[in-house]
């Protein structure tokens, strides 16, 4: 959605707009395709948690060679997964075997 707004591809529903201060809120709800703030939070407040517990999931960043990234992307595409899912599964397998 942010790219749509920045790119100018979001067209607000004119029937919901007025001069009232809440008009901006309605534009955001329309852009997200939802009716309530509760729905907006579910849609826009981030990805679901990975694993157990509460709060945000830990994030690990690393650099890899281009060739390895290309292999990862190809594998993920071939198996209908996201690259992050493949990395999580591979890391779990590696650590179980260690």
UniProtKB/TrEMBL annotation:
GO terms for biological process: regulation of DNA-templated transcription. This is CopG family transcriptional regulator. It comes from Kocuria tytonis. The lineage of its organism: Bacteria, Bacillati, Actinomycetota, Actinomycetes, Micrococcales.
């Amino acid at each position: 959605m942010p790219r749509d707004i920045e790119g100018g591809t979001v067209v607000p529903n004119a029937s919901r707009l007025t001069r009232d201060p809440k008009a901006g809120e309605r534009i955001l709800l329309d852009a997200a395709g939802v009716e309530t703030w509760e729905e907006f939070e579910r849609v826009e407040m981030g990805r679901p948690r990975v694993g157990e517990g509460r709060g945000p999931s830990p994030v690990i960043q690393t650099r890899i060679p281009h060739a390895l990234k290309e292999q990862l992307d190809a594998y993920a595409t071939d198996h209908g997964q996201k690259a992050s899912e493949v990395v999580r599964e591979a890391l779990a397998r590696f650590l179980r075997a260690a």
